[in-house]
Amino acid sequence: MKNHQNNPLDSKNEGNTCFRSFGLTSYRRLKMSISIPEEKLEDFFKRFGNDNEDRRLSKQELKDAFDSLGSRFPAWRAKRALQHADANGNGYISDQELDSLVKYAAKHGYD
């Protein structure tokens, strides 16, 4: 039997990975089933805030980020992320609040 340890979806290393066995019906669902390490998530979110001078993430930028991660409801996910990570309540995620955003996304997923 071949070693399939490099396939993150084949948890039993049997080489039988298929979409149906994981309840996945599309590539979008497949992307969401693979977890991204927190340091990669941080870099990912930073890219969405780097296009403006203040380097903060707005609700729209969060929505775009969650959409890129494959979220089915990116606007809802962005709203929840702001509620969770926006400590000062100004409607933006700053560099100081980015860690809370990353922890939220890692814990609750992007879906």
UniProtKB/TrEMBL annotation:
<feature type="domain" description="EF-hand">
    <location>
        <begin position="77"/>
        <end position="108"/>
    </location>
</feature>
<dbReference type="InterPro" id="IPR018247">
    <property type="entry name" value="EF_Hand_1_Ca_BS"/>
</dbReference>
<keyword id="KW-0106">Calcium</keyword>
<dbReference type="InterPro" id="IPR002048">
    <property type="entry name" value="EF_hand_dom"/>
</dbReference>
<dbReference type="GO" id="GO:0005509">
    <property type="term" value="F:calcium ion binding"/>
</dbReference>
<protein>
    <recommendedName>
        <fullName>EF-hand domain-containing protein</fullName>
    </recommendedName>
</protein>
<dbReference type="InterPro" id="IPR011992">
    <property type="entry name" value="EF-hand-dom_pair"/>
</dbReference>
<feature type="domain" description="EF-hand">
    <location>
        <begin position="36"/>
        <end position="72"/>
    </location>
</feature>
